[in-house]
Amino acid sequence: MRTLLLALLLVNLVFFAWSQGWMTGVGLGPVTQREPQRLALQIHPEQVQITPLASASATPAIPPQPTPSAPAIPSSLPSAPIDASAPASAEPARTANAVCRQIGPYGALEAEALAQAQSALAQVGLKPTVLNTPVPAQWMVLLGPYPSQTAMRAALDEITQQGKVKVFAPVTDRPRYEPGISLGVFANEAAAQQQLQIVRKQGVQGAKVVQRNAGLSRTVLRLPALTPEQLGALEKVSGQLGGQIVKTCATEGSAP
Fold first, then answer.
1. Residue 212 DSSP label
2. Residue-wise over 163-177: b if at least 16 C-beta within 10 A, else e?
3. Considering only CA atoms, which of 114, 137, 119 is closest in space to residue 221?
4. Which of 23, 135, 143, 238 has the most neighbouring CB atoms within 10 Å?
């Protein structure tokens, strides 16, 4: 063990002497990194002069150059001149005060009354919107039509004398079925067919079920945006509207 320690100490001493260059005389020592070729590449090295740096106080101050800035943008653009003499628009107030009125409905047999109402409205400068809607479907148990009013009256007297049929009346508002006798009007065909079977059992012959309102429509005159002045004009001709009265417009989607 002592020999090993002495050997290690000797090796350390030799390495220290080698690293310090003490053994360069015998050709032992670390290799020094040199670059002599860089010196050979210098051009006119004799012209190189070393100048000491000037102190900060001797250096002339260079005034800062002004930075060009964008032109100032005004906070608000000038508004267009307002003409105080121009009247303010009255459209919002007019719309707020406008009301809707309607007249009718006029049936298929009321063409003359409809024409009278349109003429009266035109006289006071009102032009209504004409709305035509189909008449809801109805079914009627019908006797006839007969060849004449006399034949229809005879059949009506016979029904009255028998006293078996409880519901009957002359047809007066459907030209295609006149002269005829109605034995009942119903909202659906099934109910009309049931009534037909009842009157047949009561001894009535020749009755049938027909669609009472086929192809018929009714007409409403609508005035959707009336000002107070126009309402006054409408009131002046309210008695010349073919027997109809002025009403508030029905809500959209409902029957007029």
1. T
2. eebeebeebeebeeb
3. 114
4. 143
Please write down the HEC assignment for all residues of 25-45.
Answer: HHCCCCCCCCCHHHHHCCCCH
Runs of H (alpha helix) within the chain? 2-19, 36-40, 91-97, 111-123, 149-162, 189-201, 228-236
Domains of the chain listed by start with CATH number: 95-135+218-248 (3.30.70.2030), 139-211 (no CATH)
Report residue 238 as tokens. 């309210």
Query: Do 28 and 22 touch, CB atoms closer than 8 A?
Result: no
pTM for the structure as a whole: 0.47
- Locate 182 and state its tokens: 């109605």
Element containing residue 106 per DSSP (H, E): strand 99-106
Q: Are the C-beta atoms of 131 and 217 separated by less than 8 Å?
A: no
Tokens of 245: 């009265």
Residue 229 tokens read as 């002045």
Helix residue ranges, H only, 25-133: 36-40, 91-97, 111-123
pLDDT, tens digit, 9 for 90 and up, residues 108-161: 888 899 999 999 999 999 999 999 988 889 999 999 999 999 999 999 998 888
